[in-house]
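Session log. Operator J.P. requested a structure for one protein chain; no other inputs attached. Running the standard single-chain path with token output.
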Amino acid sequence: MRLTLGKFVVHPQHGPAEVVERKTRKVKGEDVEYVVLEVEDQRLQIAVPEDSLSEIGVRDLASHTRLRKLMSLLAKTGDKLEKQWSRRLKALREKLATGDLDNVAEVARDLYRRQQEKDLSMAERNLYQEAKDMLVAEVALVLDVDHEEAERTIDGAIDGVPLTRLGLDRGKDKK
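Structure written below.
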């Protein structure tokens, strides 16, 4: 993946980030090319070795087509969550740590629905918020909307609102 200044990508642990700088550093006597990413809304900068981007899990921002598929995934019935709290939390953390858009969405969806049934533990609430924040940031960037609108779109998708009502039917052929 070749990154240019101003391009947005997604870091698996921090979410959407903008490429703000390229630099070379000496590491063990060798020049290593780094890409500096500034994480959306966090004023956090991360220097990532360019050769390690895919290994770390840095990926391109989702496309509109990818978002439509994501919203369909959010509307689906989720997997049954582990009953034992510690195992459930571990499985959800592992999913979230991948940074994979589908995994992040599944964590947000499953905890959103669990929250509708019963109270979440503090750890589950924190995990839910982390997953939701990552989704909201990416959806807001892709759709060019504010975070509140992105959050309403995600919640609507989880609640089963049709894509046409969410404004995500663009790009489909209308016959």
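Operator note: The chain has seven helices and five strands.
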